[in-house]
Amino acid sequence: MTARNLPLIATLVVFIVAYALCAMQFPAMLSLRVVANLLTDNAYLGVAAVGMTFVIISGGIDLSVGSVIAFTGVFLAVVIRAGIDPITAFVLVLIITTLFGAVMGAMIHYLETPPFIVTLAGMFFARGACFLLTTDSIPIDHPTWDFITSLNYRLPGGGRLTLVAMIMLVVFLAGILVAHFTRFGTYVYGMGGNRQSAELMGVPVARTTVAIYALSSGLAGVAGIVFALYTSAGYSLAATGVELDTIAAVVIGGTLLTGGVGTIAGTFVGVLIQGLIQTYIIFDGTLSSWWTKIVIGGLLFAFILLQRGLVHVAARRRAAARMAAA
Amino acid sequence: MTDDRSTAHAATSGAPAGPGDHRSGADDAPLLEIRGLSKSFPGVRALDGVDFRLHAGEVHALLGENGAGKSTLIKVLTGVHARDGGEIRLGGVPIDAADTADAQRLGIGTVYQEVNLLPNLSVADNLYLGREPTRFGLRSARRTAAMARELLAGYGLSIDVTANLGDYSVAVQQIVAIARAVDLSGKVLVLDEPTASLDAGEVQTLFGIVRRLTARGIGVVFVTHFLDQVFALCDRATVLRNGRLVGERRIAELGRLELVTMMLGRELEAAQLHRRRGEGPKGEAFLAFEGFGRHAYVNPFDLEIRPSEVTGVAGLLGSGRTETAKLLFGIKEADAGSATADGAPLRLASPRAAVAAGFAFCPEDRKTEGIVGDLSVRENIMLALQARRGWLNPLSRGESKALADRFIKALDIRTPDAEKPIRLLSGGNQQKALLARWLATEPRFLILDEPTRGIDVGAHAEIIRLIERLCDEGLALLVISSEIDEIVAYSDRVLVLRDRAHVGMIEGADVTVDRIVGAIAAEGPATAAGVPA
After folding, report:
1. CA distance B513 to B313
2. Does B120 reach chain A within 8 Å, measured CB to CB?
3. Which chain A residues are within 8 Å of B157, Cβ to Cβ?
4. A151, HSE (Cβ side, Cα atoms, 13 Å)
5. What is the pLDDT of residues B85-122, one digit of tens each?
6. Pfam families this protein is in (chain A) (predicted)?
7. Residue of A197, A307, A318 to mutate for B, most B C-beta atoms under 10 A
8. What one-character DSSP code corresponds to residue A29?
9. pLDDT tens profile B137-191
10. Fewest Cβ atoms closer than 10 Å to its Cβ: which of A94, B53, B128, B268?
């Protein structure tokens, strides 16, 4: 039981310790304003990471996330410029991205192609589609849009919980609900544990695979909307490499890349850790932003080592239990 | 035991007949009836008009060599494959399972050899995957756990159902798998080699559970390689061969020889099982081990190896059989005694040194220590020879092809061609390919550890004939086996081990099952048990 929760606990401890260290150096980092900004600045990453968590727990990978975010932004900018209402544009783009994911899921299942290859193709495809729409960075300007971006909840102490931050929190809560309290969630864990067994146990593998990638791309669409609201522009080269940041957040959050083990809550902490490092760098003011990547890289190594260690300990304990039983 | 089951069956089915009566009569309606079932795969007719009947409350063995069609029959029955022709009736109603989930809904549950559950989920989740109790569309973990505890209590299992399944032993996982399958289906339970990875005590537990289930009127289809278990547990047996039905028999009326004959489709010639022995020493010993041993591994022993001689190694599990082999092959280095080859000292510090000295070793665990599953048959065969030549001196493709083809023909390895990945071959053919790998290095001394384990009866006989042929060709062999019958069949002399020590050497006409068993079972220190005067 404890071994199951250990990666999550380790992630939490890392976050708390890191935050405490930051706060000791810059007491201002303790303010609600900073926390709110942390959520706002990383909202798109968090939303995409929820979808990625499902994909990775199921034993897959989705490399198309960053491109889908960029595509969403460009699509929104182009159609809103063409005179379409932002709300209609949101609905349209979510339909497109979800269908896009569903098609990738179907290819993965029915053509028995590795997710890595299919979503890599999806990544190029979606990025290419951006350039097909436009090569320019297009600002989004619309009365409804301005209204939406202005929505926020004023926190005590001058911080604002923006709409995008709220969207991220809602997506995380919904993700936790789906992962742990629905059959779909159990199917995802089951497929990650052993796809063939899950199939023999009656898990609708085809439907679940399609749904997982549809969910991931759909959430990447939501992340794209969040990103567009955050930047108020659509640009074809935006969000390059975000899929890798997302994967890093998921792994730091305690999810095994081999599938079957992980939590949405862990991913949330993983996203916060990434955000915390960036915030620290901004507060410091002298460090290059590339330090974020270096620290993330170090953390990834540490967590992979931790996970290998846990797997090893679990195997040893199982062997010991068997000896005791014999 | 038989009476228990029969009475229970009579009670559940309401049959008026006396104990055992229903089993003899084909008249009362079977629970499951398969008629004229056919299934073809590209190039193979896997099932050809097969009939199968299962009665409520019986354990029905489904037997046959590898490739007989057992797996295909089960897969068609449980909806993994679609059938080409024939009819399946469950309780008199024609059924056609579209997939495993559908088969479960209809009442047919399956438990496979490797527990096909999900080790990363809790026991409770495994039991109720896909049908968890829900409230307002959400799963209720607490109710799932409560239901799981109650279900497992019916199997005499009281464990923490919220812990991950993977934390429990294979035996517990097997019981959980059965509990799930029965709970899901409730009419027919298919057990596909469920005992392969259980120890004797666990097998008994499993049998107890199976009997409890049949008492409840569930029909059990039992697939196994172990004939003892067929006779211990089953009421009836259906034998398949090459995709065709050979026959259905009541176990009580079936002799062992008859059953094996049905499976093999040919009379086992008694003569085949006993090779001529007692022709005296076959030439000078070319290998000699003196006081050879390793502390806390195998006690020091003396051993001489002569050409054209099969030395059988007998002993209980853990008596030091495999350890002896590993010591001789340099996998573990001896820390006592000496070895000489043709009179010259020989240092066996590594398998490489052993191979250089003309040794070869086929390990016990074919899958993890022997074959390289994704490589082709040809590549597997050439592996040892290539290793011996070194990577600077590669075998050309033509050479390795010729080599592979020669051995595929000589050892009758059944594969469509040399380029097929070896994991797709049956166990017996994999074993022959492994033998070929070592024979390609033209060894003088071949060590085989359990060469016939986990392969079907027909391939078993072929391996034994192969051992004898190699011996006749001048090879010296050391063969470890748990099957005393088998050791008697091919050995010129038998080395007996007990508690990590060599306790006797039985030679010539004394090589009999009784003498070997006596030597293994003998009390006290290494006396001259079984050593002829």
Report:
1. 13
2. yes
3. none
4. 13
5. 899 999 888 988 888 778 888 889 888 777 678 888 99
6. BPD_transp_2
7. A197
8. G
9. 788 888 889 999 999 988 888 889 988 888 888 788 888 988 998 888 888 999 9
10. B268
- Contact assessment for residue B102 and residue B81, using Cβ atoms and an 8 Å cutoff: no
**Cβ of B125 and A201 within 8 Å?**
no
The domains found in chain A, sorted by start residue, are 2-325 (1.10.3470)
Of B389, B353, B371, the C-alpha closest to B431 is B371
Contact indicator for A148, A163 with CB cutoff of 8 Å: yes
Q: Where are the domains of chain B?
A: 2-19+50-79+96-270, 271-358+443-533, 370-442
How far is it, in rounded angstroms, from Cα B490 to Cα B479?
Answer: 9
φ, ψ of residue B56 in degrees (nearest 5): -65, 140
Instruction: Say if A2 is an interface residue toward chain B (CB within 8 Å).
Output: no
Q: Which two tokens stand for residue B374?
A: 């994704």
Beta carbons of A247 and A52 less than 8 angstroms apart: yes
| B199 touching chain A per CB within 8 A | yes
- pLDDT for residue B25 is more than 50: no
For residue B119, the chain A residues in CB contact (below 8 A) are 193-194
B432 CB-contact burial (10 Å; exposed 0-12 / middle 13-18 / buried 19+)? buried
Region of poorest pLDDT, from A57-61, A73-77, B197-201, B499-503: B197-201
Cα–Cα distance, B312 to B512 (Å, whole number)? 12
Backbone dihedral angles phi then psi of residue B511, each to the nearest 5 degrees: -70, 90
The residues, any chain, with a CB within 8 Å of residue B292's CB and separated by 6 or more, are: B300, B301, B302, B303, B327, B328, B334, B336, B337, B338, B339
> Is the CB of A189 less than 8 angstroms away from the CB of B138?
no
Distance, in Å, from the CA atom of A281 to the CA atom of A290, rounded to the nearest integer, reads 9
CB contact under 8 A, B169 and A182: no
Closest CA to B313 of B483, B464, B466, B531: B483
Interchain contact, A193 vs B120, CB within 8 Å: yes
Phi-psi category of residue B14: left, alpha or beta, with phi > 0 → left and psi -120 to 50 → alpha: left
Q: Between β-strands A160-162 and B309-314, what pairing exists: parallel, antiparallel or unpaired?
A: unpaired
CA distances from B387 to A265, B350, B394, B441, B446 (A): 51, 14, 9, 10, 17
- The helix-helix angle for A143-150 and A205-231 (nearest 10°) equals 100
- Return the pLDDT at B42: 66
Nearest CB to A202 within list B101, B169, B199: B101
**Are B2-19+50-79+96-270 and B271-358+443-533 the same fold in CATH?**
yes
Mean pLDDT of B31-55: 86
Q: Pick from A193, A199, A318: which is nearest to B121 by CB? A: A193
Q: Which CATH superfamily is domain B2-19+50-79+96-270 in?
A: P-loop containing nucleotide triphosphate hydrolases (3.40.50.300)
